[in-house]
Amino acid sequence: MIYQGNAITVTRRDTPSGNDIAMLTFDLKDESVNKLSSAVIAELDEAVKAIQAENGLKGLLIASGKDVFIVGADITEFHSLFDKGEAYLEEMNLKVHAIFNAIEDLPFPTVTAINGLALGGGCEVLLTTDFRVMGEKTKIGLPETKLGILPGWGGCVRLPRIIGADNAIEWIAGGTENRADAALKVGAVDAVVTAEQLEEAALDILDRANAGELDYQARRAEKTSPLKLNPIEQMMAFETAKGYVAGKAGPHYPAPVEAIKVIQKGAGEERGRAQAIEAKAFAKLALSSVAFNLVGLFLNDQVVKKKASKYEKQAQPVKQTAVLGAGIMGGGIAYQSASKGTPILMKDIKDDAIELGLKEARKLFAKQVERNKLTTEQMAEKLSNIRPTLSYGDFGNVDLVVEAVVENPKVKGAVLAEVEEKVSDNTILTSNTSTISINRLAQNLKRPENFCGMHFFNPVHRMPLVEVIRGEKTSDAAVAATVAYARAMGKTPIVVNDCPGFLVNRVLFPYFGGFSFLVEQGADFQRVDKVMEKFGWPMGPAYLLDVVGLDTAVHANEVMAEGFPDRMARDGKTAIQVMYDNDRLGQKNDKGFYAYEEDKKGKPKKVTDEAAYALVKEVVKEHKEFSDEDIIARMMVPLCLETVRCLEDGIVATPAEADMALIYGIGFPPFRGGALRYIDAMGVAEFVKLAEGLADELGPLYAPTDKLRQMAQNNEQFYPGNQSDAKSANQA
Prior knowledge:
Elements: E1 3-4, E2 8-14, E3 20-26, H1 38-53, E4 60-64, H2 78-82, H3 86-104, E5 110-114, E6 118-119, H4 121-127, E7 131-135, E8 139-141, H5 155-163, H6 165-174, E9 177-179, H7 180-186, E10 191-193, H8 198-210, H9 216-224, H10 231-249, H11 255-267, H12 271-286, H13 289-314, E11 321-324, H14 328-339, E12 344-347, H15 351-370, H16 376-383, E13 386-389, E14 400-403, H17 409-420, E15 428-431, H18 438-442, E16 451-456, E17 465-470, H19 476-488, E18 492-497, H20 504-520, H21 525-535, H22 541-548, H23 550-563, H24 565-568, H25 575-581, E19 595-598, E20 604-607, H26 610-616, H27 628-648, H28 655-666, H29 675-682, H30 684-698, H31 706-713
Parallel strand pairs: 3-4, 4-5, 5-7, 6-8, 7-10, 11-12, 11-14, 12-13, 14-15, 15-16, 17-18
Antiparallel strand pairs: 1-2, 2-3, 8-9, 16-17, 19-20
């Protein structure tokens, strides 16, 4: 034994040719995966020093004792590390560089055997060795830009020198996870073999390098020298890429372009100088609000996944499902279930509805074939997982039913009572309702403990969120099975308690309420859209209402007004009601706040419609001037306050789940971290002050809760602990 730690062991062993080598194995105790925490990096330093001190070695093999190689740095440490400031982060990165450089400079050939995922810092470890062998089912990549940072442990330096600047930019700016065949094609790895052959192939490479067949010194020289690009090639590679990546990433996500700049600045430098450039750029980005919030988002996502996993472990198996109602929504649910391998019956009372549902599923599968994600044979196989039916004949074998008929409590109630008679006593019934109370729908059921809500968002195949709604009588078993099924469908389930609108729609409609107030006071709805899109929303409120459908919005608004009359009921007509009354339903009939024409791809394109402006005049009561900041405050304050109320009322259990639901369900700008992180970033006291000022003029929709006022007085936050220096930029 050369070295023994909590995460790393180094032993001596022989290659087939009898060469004595060091085998460094990552195997973090009491964890399912390997992560590079501060403690593991400290161990790596000690392990490398032990290897340097050992005599008679002819090579190093780096491997993993787990099913994955290394998933990356320990992200749970990031906020506390970021809090230590730019100088600390830069120094920390340079220390890691010194350790990684020591591996790269060992006086004998080195190889990494890559099994399972090797991401971020894990990928940067394997770039230090002279050679790399990859298991055929493995993926490698540098996804740091997705966290608002860039590879800071040599990824921006070594990868371009190994696979070329163009390929490295694509990997790093895109944050992609790359399969073995793609990695081999660009030269990121030297061989791809089965998992069983991995170690043998790595040892063979060391023997061949020691025999002079493979020139490991030439590999090193290339990695530690400037990039071999002349000035014209550099300009072509970097300037073109910066423009393209900036357009794709958008103004709120600076990391991808910064990563290209780091590669560019370091291109003409030798290793040490290029690494110093990288370390400095990483430290600067790490202190941005974007990095802080995206790291927070990752941590919140882990909270949501852990909760879902707990439910999954308790769940009864869901092997056969059914969807009632075969329209676009039913077809989307059937497609998602079938594509992920759970067979599904699709029932309706009309042949043409069945055909519409099948057409939707076929269309989505055909797109997968077009994108080379599926072969025609695979499409046919997956499509056979959907069985259309007009009867309840086979419902006795169904484990879980999703009711997706028209959003009408009487119709839904009747359909649910009818299907309950046709299924077994253990079958879970769920309703894909967006607003109707689960307790109300459960009233007609004999087994309400087997019933809960399963709210999908449209379009089903794209939207990651599923709200699982627990009624007063819903059992843990029903929730667990529904969560497990949502996960099997590739969705992110978040469990919420019953109330009008549940979590996401309950929070969204005060946002639309803020929009209605603005229009009544003379704000131009197109300008409001532009301001909120610039703020980071995928679409502004008027455009979003057109996409949702004005009829759907009016119906949901009535449910909210009945449930929360003090702040959501309105006297007089709103702009939303006026559109609906004039049969302007949005995209579904090509006219709403905008008119819609088909673009070249056959998709609806919005255009200004003077008729909409003429109708809106009916509700305008005064003409006020609004700054962009005024518009943002009037839109965001009611949304954030309703999120606070949902947390206080126990509709959602944690700030993490509340924020993730808004990001996954309605496209809340991810780089702002969610509604509750947004309040934290502004400062709870500052937010309360802003809300109180607006409540004086606009009423209860803008009034902070007593508990929130208390939090402001006590200087509390929704996410206690580190806020770093990056707080303020969230309001920009």
